[in-house]
Structures are given as C-alpha cells and as structure tokens.
Amino acid sequence: MRDLLHVFxxxxxxxxxxxxxxxxxxxxxxxxxxxPPVVERLxxxxxxxxxxxxxxxxxxxxxxxxxxxxxxxxxLLVAECTSDLGLRCTARCDEExxxxxxxxxxxxxxxxxxxxxxxxxxxxxxVVPLDRPTLAxxxxxxxxxxxxxxxxxVLFADGDAASGLLLQRVPERIDTDGDDWNRAVHxxxxxxxxxxxxxxxxxxLRRLFPEDDVRLFDGRPLRYxxxxxxxxxxxxxxxxxxxxxxxxxxxQGRVEVTCEFCGRSYxxxxxxxxxxxx
Length: 278
Ligand SMILES: [Zn+2]
Prior knowledge:
Blueprint: E1 4-10, E2 15-22, H1 24-32, H2 37-54, E3 63-71, E4 74-81, E5 86-93, H3 102-105, E6 107-116, E7 124-130, H4 135-147, E8 151-157, E9 162-169, H5 178-188, H6 193-198, H7 201-208, E10 214-216, E11 220-221, E12 223-224, H8 230-240, H9 242-252, E13 255-258, E14 265-268, H10 270-277
Parallel strand pairs: 5-12
Antiparallel strand pairs: 1-2, 1-10, 1-11, 2-9, 3-4, 3-6, 4-5, 6-7, 8-9, 13-14
C-alpha cells in the first residue's frame, strides 16, 4: 500500500474523518536521524497527526505546523505537513530517555498549531497547555480548547509504519445529537494498527462503521520533503549580520548550518561570506 491520506464523510450524521498510512515515508524519516525509541514513536505519531489535521483545514493552500515545547528530557517536537502533503519532523531531546507519559517527558509544555501559507505575513496560531499523557490526547485537547471542535484521534507508530485515524464532529451540520457522535467515536476508537496497515480504506470503513453510509474520497499521496535550501540559509545568515558571521569564520574557519529536520549541512567560508554580503 502506498503512503496516502484518505478523507471521508458520514452521509447521515455530522461527522467527518481522515486516515493516514505511512511506510516508505516513515522509514525514510527514521533513516535520517536516530532518536531514543520513545521519541521516535512520538515523531511517527506527530507526522501522521500533522497530515490528519491538515486534512481538516478549510484552505488547501495552507501548511500546518505542529509544535510542542516543554521542560524535561524532551524539549521540542515539531511536525510539518505542507499544502502539497510533504511531511517532515524533528525533535530535541536528551540522548537517553525512558518511556514516560508525554506530559512528563515535556513538563510545563505547550502545544501550538500554526496554519498559513509560507509567504503569509500573518499566520494563524493557537496555543494550549500540554497536560495530556498521549500525543493524540494532547491534540484532541488542542482542537477542543483552541478550535471548539470535538475530535477523536488514534495514532500508531513502530519501526515499520506510522498510521492514524481522525474523526471530527462537523459544526456546520447540527442535524445530529451527541449519540451519533459518541457512537462513531466508540466504533472508530477500536481501529488497530494492523487494520490501518492491511485493509483497503473502503473495507476498513465498512468494518468500523457497518451501520453508516460513509463516502470515501480518493487518496492523496503523502511523501517526505524538507524545504531547507542554501538560499534559505543565506537569508538567515544575512539577517544575522556580517559582523556575527565573520566572527564565526575567524574563529572556526567557516560557518556550518545543519538542518534540524533532514540533517543536511550547509557550509560557508570567507569567500562565500564576501559574496553573501557583497
Ligand atoms: Zn532540511
């Protein structure tokens, strides 16, 4: 099965959803950098979550950036899904971390979601405290507090695959009582990693929601993509200022900037610096 995002809507109750399955993309991300197992699993969950949440955006030209920050052994977790469904993620953490709930790995944490096109000066951002033990729980809490949207998210990640399912109560359609939503959540929460991995999406929906009429849209391909470039690093160095950059070159012979997402290094020596500042 390819790496795909599938969106679906329930025809007769006010619920919509999405599902994501990644294997090649996830294996590629795992090959870029190594993290402690607990952080790796959270990264897998976070890129799936970024794709699931991106599917709920009103504008298809928006990028979605998910950021969690806190104090503790895991300081930063970032996942991005671009408007063309390019995914990347990164984390900052201690070298060794034991398994623990998310709100213990990140104490006094915050969860932020930024939505907007890359060139937009004003982006929309919501921030809520991070006080849930799981990533899925933290994002459900974010959607409820920041967006007033009832959402259920199920996430899986292991060494081979990362996958997930999202259900959301549609606010514009109020032709349902809480019972339909609760029933959909109850059924959707039973989904397993194997079902997401092995079953065709249409078959999975029939199995999860046998009583409902669910319309499934064509899958859209997801892939790994890092938007870093030498040009962007030049922009960053320019804003840092000539004095600062020349000082580093004087001390270390060159400036080296490494992309936190893909690990690519960009090097600048004295001649590059002269060209940069003309
Ligand atoms: Zn990069």
